[in-house]
Design goal:
Blueprint lengths: L18 H6 L8 E4 L2 E4 L1 H11 L12 H27 L2 H25 L1 H10 L3
Antiparallel strand pairs: 1-2
This protein binds glutathione.
Glutathione binds next to loops.
Length: 134
């Protein structure tokens, strides 16, 4: 809640999904869904951009003004979503050889991300290293 906007958090049981979730996100049936004035907005990255656009009078903008930098940030956010996150889910739900294979792929993607961020957003990389010292 870095923008200081008040909100109510509603926990969802993902094993027994509620009818409310299915109605709010009829395409994917997944969380998160942001509901504003009764209108649902699913998908994390879409939600983040919506929040950034609507509450844009605050000092804390998630995306910078420069369209090229915005495009590059969207690129790396997409990389994390399309490459890293699916592997995280597979690593925790598989064993043995399959898990090793996905773990190796995961490390490869992490290296790509590290190289990309160090080159394009060195300040962001230093921040990540400072807050995630593993
Ligand atoms: N692309 C979606 C992915 C959301 C997602 O995977 N949500 C998980 C929880 S972290 C979920 O709802 N899982 C339930 C399911 O897959 O049935 C997003 O970025 O919001």
């Amino acid at each position: 809640n870095s923008k200081g906007v008040p909100y109510e958090f509603i926990q969802e049981d993902l094993i027994n999904k509620s009818q409310t979730l299915i109605q709010l996100n009829p395409v994917y049936h997944k969380v998160p869904v942001l509901v504003v004035d009764g209108k649902p907005i699913p998908e994390s990255l879409v939600i983040l951009e919506y929040i950034d656009e609507v509450w844009n009078d605050k000092d804390w903008q998630l995306l910078p003004k420069d369209p090229y930098i915005r495009a590059r940030i969207r690129f790396w956010a997409g990389f994390i979503y399309q490459k890293l996150l699916p592997n995280c889910h597979t690593i925790i739900s598989t064993f043995g050889e399959e898990q090793d294979k996905v773990a190796r792929e995961f490390i490869e993607y992490l290296n790509i991300l590290e190289d990309g961020l160090k080159k394009e957003f060195p300040w962001l990389w230093r921040l990540i290293v400072a807050v995630c010292p593993w």
